[in-house]
Specification:
Elements lengths: L1 E2 L4 H35 L6 H30 L2 E4 L3 E6 L5 E6 L3 E7 L2 H6 L1 E8 L16 E7 H19 L5
Antiparallel strand pairs: 1-2, 2-3, 3-4, 5-6, 6-7
Helix pairs in contact: 1-2
Length: 178
Amino acid sequence: MQQLHPKAKWLFFISALWKMALLLFFFWPFIVVPIILPAIFVGSVSSNPWLWIAGVVSLIPVLLWLGLSYVWAWLTYSNWRYELADLGFKKESGIIWKSYVTIPYSRIQNVDIYRGFWARVLGLSDVHIQTAGQSSAGRYGQARFAEGRLPGLLQTDAESLRDELVRRSSHTNHPSGL
């Protein structure tokens, strides 16, 4: 099975940063406020070591946020694989809950390539493989629930994969080559 392009780790890292930011935003007051409020009421910065401790303690969640986001991105990248098998497209992904998807070529209806902002910055593309009855359009017509989604492929790899999937699906749907 093939792995995504190594730059895909950065796409997963950016995604993890956004998800972890929500958790950090929620828990930040419960971590920092109990330390900062007593320090503020005690005295000045130079005479109060609590303000220095509060500053250091407030950095700990940020460092944990960055570290956990990177570890999550690396694990996501390590567990995402795909291949073009004889009977269909196979994809496996997931860290905690593993997902093994096989899409027979005869069920493939459409193969799209999307390039979001961060993907364009990194020179990557997402391939979305849609099947009849499984895909639904999201924002800007993008298939948000495509059965087969491959983020983090080089643009040339994404285009050749799309062309190969379309070729294989057209041969299985129309054996005579029409």
